[in-house]
């Protein structure tokens, strides 16, 4: 249903959202951990994206693991910590969508 190319486009958009979210958290709340986590996770997804051009299956599996981790992390933050949709709930939903697209394109 989804091709590797579609998964790469979705992964690139996800990378931009992660980096933008980290920068936004730093600018609005002065949160250095948000900046470090956002840019760090965006870097990991960017590496997975780069690997997917040479070894598509392995790169997308790596990206799937990252998306799964972030989906679980943001769900945990939303359910136990904040109960606010922004940003934890939104990123949990986006991570779930990205995870679904990656899994469908791998299978």
UniProtKB/TrEMBL annotation:
Residue ranges of the TM segments: 6-27, 34-54, 60-78, 85-106
Keywords: Membrane, Transmembrane, Transmembrane helix
Localization: Membrane
InterPro entries: TMEM14, TMEM14_sf
Cross-referenced Pfam families: Tmemb_14
GO CC field: membrane
The protein's name in its UniProt record: Transmembrane protein 14C
